[in-house]
Structure formats: C-alpha cells, structure tokens
Amino acid sequence: MNICVFLSAADLDDRYTVPAREFAELLGRGGHTLVWGGSESGLMKVVADGVQESGGRLVGVSVDFLAAKARTNADEMVIAKDLAERKALLLEKSDAIVIMVGGTGTLDEATEILELKKHGKHTKPVVLLNTAGFYDGLRQQFQRMEDEGFLPVPLTDLVFFAKDGVGALAYLEESAGLQ
C-alpha cells in the first residue's frame, strides 16, 4: 500500500521521534511505500530512514523552493512547482493518508485532505496519528464542528484518530482489506 504521511520537517524531541520511527519501521516491514514531502530534514528524515531501513520504498514529492532539501536516495522523487501541486500529487500517489505531528503546513495538508474527502473527491482512509496527545485540541474542535452541524458527514467517516502507529496501520490495513 502507498501510504502518504504528512508531517513536520522540524527537528523534534523523543516524544515525537521515537513513535515516528516505530511507525516507519512498521510500514517498511509491512512492505508499504512511504509517500511523503521528500525532505531530508527533521521528522521527515526520521520516518524516511525508518521505512527505507526496514525494507519499504520511498516516493517523495518535494516543491521547487525546497528541492535543495530533498532526499537524494529516494526510490522516486518528484519536484512540484508549488504547494498546491505538491498536495495534489501526494494524494494522487497514495492509497491512504496518515497525518503525524506538524506545524501550519501539516495542518493545511490535513484540512485540505479532509475537505476533499468531505466532498467526495477521494475515499481514501485518513488517520490522524495523535502522538503524545498532540491533536487532542483539534479532535475536540472537529467534534464540536460535528455536534453543531458544521460537518455534513459524521466525523468518523472523515478521519480515524489513532493513539499509536500500531493502531494507525491496523486501521489502514483493515480499510484496504489486508487483514
């Protein structure tokens, strides 16, 4: 399965890097392909290293202004002209999406993916990997949106919140009929 992972390229502490590495190794050992932003920095590097060292493939989609930070030994690397094209290519090349910890760029990617799913533009499973409770506030906000009528579909039809990588991968494999 080609699994797109949206995540930070920042250097982060062990609260985030250890679970990210564990998830990446699960992907690699499972024979999955990581589809990601292509960066050789921070958490993106941690995940790419883990997948590659565990036998998985890497498909990167970088963007023109970040091409100098792109991983040189990925199995495939595409350079998009802008962030909008990058997001479209990441979605196109994936069978499922996992949203890990990140900043405004990751949040932008997450909300666009969920908005497209809400409107039926894709039916791919989406998981928010809630490492160390990072997305507790966002989950609460999404629940409020559902409760107050802002979501035309149930939140559970849009996104699955996983507390760890094992739960995230199990959900994705079940959604794809691999279990």
Structure description:
By secondary structure, the protein is α/β, with parallel strands linked by helices. Helix content is 45%, strand content 18%. It has 7 helices and 7 strands; from the N terminus they run βαβαββαβαβααβα. It has a 7-stranded parallel β-sheet, sandwiched between helices. α1 (14-29) runs parallel beside α2 (42-53). The mean pLDDT is 95.
Question: Short summary of the structure?
Answer:
The protein has 179 residues and is of the alpha/beta class.
Lateral arrangement of strands in the main beta sheet? 4-3-2-1-5-6-7
* Portion in strands: 15-25%
Overall form: globular
Supply the number of helical segments: 7
Would you tell me the structural class of the helices and strands? alpha/beta
Overall pLDDT confidence: 95
- Cα-to-Cα separation, first versus last residue: 13 Å
Low-confidence stretches: none
List strands and helices in order, with pairings:
Layout: E1 2-6, H1 14-29, E2 33-36, H2 42-53, E3 57-63, E4 76-80, H3 83-92, E5 96-99, H4 104-118, E6 126-129, H5 136-147, H6 155-158, E7 160-162, H7 165-175
Parallel strand pairs: 1-2, 1-5, 2-3, 3-4, 5-6, 6-7
Task: Looking at this protein, list some descriptive labels.
179 residues, 7-stranded parallel sheet, 7 helices
